[in-house]
Each structure stands twice: as structure tokens, then as C-alpha cells.
Amino acid sequence: MKIGIIFAMQEELDALKKHLSIENEYNIFDLNFYEGNIEGVNCILVESGIGKVNAARTTQILIDNFKVDYIFNVGVAGGISNNLAVGDIVIGEKLVQHDFDLTAFNHEKGFIPSVGKYIDADTYLLSIASQTLNNIKDINVVRGVIASGDIFCTESSMASKINNKFNALCVEMEGASIAQVCFLSNIPFLILRSISDVPNNDNVITYEKFMESSAINIANGMKEILKTLKQELE
User: Fold this and answer.
1) Catalytic site residue from 30, 197, 224, 232
2) What averages of pLDDT result for each successive group of 10 residues across the chain (234 residues)?
3) Of 12, 47, 88, 172, which is the active-site residue?
């Protein structure tokens, strides 16, 4: 079993890389891939860079060069549900691109031809992640929709609009594009987010304050998920 794990930023990658016994390093199209072992599982870690295009590009390079069995996207996000707080973990049951707009052609906002509006995560990985994360004390875990778009959402009015339009729990800039590439390539995937801020016009400050702790939070959760996967396959 080989698992690819994609991060948008170096801080997110470093939080999990601490648990990785590195065996090989590769540079492909200026992307650094780290291959090694976490909890007995062969993993490939890579930083994609911020945004949907960077994330999609990295996902396809990962699939083409490493023949991974599963792909995870792990990182932080802004909570847009009133029921979420900083440090909570969101497991993405469905992914949607909130800024994809073909409404001029009578499609719903977020609808992508040949893909649909929502992209469903792999049910097996959802089960494993839910089972694992819900057993970790002092962490609130929620499953639901994650919305992605090429904008750092700072306005509470925009957050409410995305929440209401897509029933989304949080918003970020990569997950749905990774989901789209995985869907088209028939690779099982799961998107996991730790809440670093809540859009309120001052959330840039909140993000900077809690980004590192949120990244560590989700990295520790990912480590436990890998442990569970190893046990399931033994």
C-alpha cells in the first residue's frame, strides 16, 4: 500500500514530516516529494503550493509518478459554520468548488461538466478517518461539505453565502481540485482540515496565530489514521 499526502504549505507538510522516516527524496517539475514510512505505511509527502491549479497539478504528477493507492489532502481551513471552533477537525464527505460558475448556461453554481457539483470522498477512507479521529480525546470532529476556491475568505458575508449555498462547513483553496483529479483518475481520496480561523474580517490575524497549532493538530490525526489503516490491512 502506498499513500500520497498533499499539503498546500510547508508548515503543514513539516508537521507530518516529523513522523516520517525518509527513505527517498525526488524533485519533479520543481516539486519536492518525500518518500518514507509513517506507522509502517509507505507514504509520499509533497507540498503543492496554494490554490486550485497548484493542487491539481501536483495531484496528477503524484499519480503519474508514484502509482499511489490512496490520496489524502491535509491542512488547515477557515470555518464557515457557526458550530465550528478553532482546532476542530472537518472530514470532507463531499467537495465543491464554490467559485466554479456556469450559471450563465443554466447549471448550478459549482457544477463541473463530466464531474458534477459535489465530489464524494471514498467511503472506506471516510469510515477509517471517522473511527480513528472520534477516538482522540479533546478533539471535536465533524463530517460534511468542504468548499474550495481561489480566494482567502475574509468577509463574514461571503462565508455565510458559501455556507448557505453549499451547506459547507469550511472553506479553503485546494481540496476540491484534488478531489476532481482523483475522481477523474479513479484514485480513492479524502480531504481533512483543521480549523485555523473563522471569517470575521479579522481572521488573517487569527489564521497567523493558530495556523501552526492547527497544522500540528491535523498532522497528529493523520498519523493515527495511518496507524488504523495499517492495522486494517494486516
Assistant:
1) 197
2) 95 94 97 96 97 98 97 94 88 98 96 97 97 90 97 84 95 97 98 82 60 83 94 77
3) 12
User: Looking at domain 2-233, which CATH architecture does it have?
Assistant: 3-Layer(aba) Sandwich (3.40)
What is the gyration radius of the CA atoms in the chain, in angstroms? 17
* Residue-wise DSSP of 96-109: EETT---GGGT--T
Separation CA 221–CA 52 (nearest Å) = 24
Q: Is 12 a catalytic residue?
A: yes
Known catalytic residue: 25? no
Whole-angstrom distance, CA of residue 179 vs CA of residue 110: 13
How far apart (Å, rounded) are the C-alpha atoms in residues 228 and 40?
Answer: 10
Per domain, the residue ranges of the chain are 2-233
Displacement of CA 81 from its chain's centroid (Å): 17
